[in-house]
Design brief:
The chain contains 4 helices and 3 strands. It is an alpha+beta fold. It has a single domain, classed as Aspartate Aminotransferase, domain 1, CATH 3.90.1150.10. Strands 1-3-2 form a 3-stranded antiparallel sheet.
């Protein structure tokens, strides 16, 4: 989990998964609206300059995805996202896919 525990923007979370490529994870999570970078640089393949600026190593920054919750996001949506991410990350890590 990247960022300060208390000083963060509500509804946005950025999480890194060591050993998993963020782009691969992003493609596997095709049923979720997630991204690998900030909204202003979503087309870039470089790791988030915000994450690297916070001291996150480049490899982990590349293994990170950003979740944004909206006004109509529900607890069920969050639960579904958590299950899907867990399934996909486990699949990628056990198969050595990165």
């Amino acid at each position: 989990l990247h960022g300060h525990r208390d000083a963060r923007v509500p509804g946005i979370i950025n999480v890194g998964f060591a050993g998993v490529d963020g782009e691969t994870l992003l493609l596997a999570l095709d049923d979720l609206a997630v991204s690998t970078g900030s909204a202003c640089s979503s087309a870039s393949v470089d790791p988030s300059h915000v994450l690297t600026g916070m001291g996150v190593p480049r490899a982990l920054a590349h293994a990170s995805i950003r979740f944004s919750l909206g006004r109509y996001s529900t607890e069920a949506d969050v639960d579904h996202a958590g299950r899907r991410v867990s399934e996909v990350v486990t699949h990628l890590q056990t198969r050595g896919i990165s």
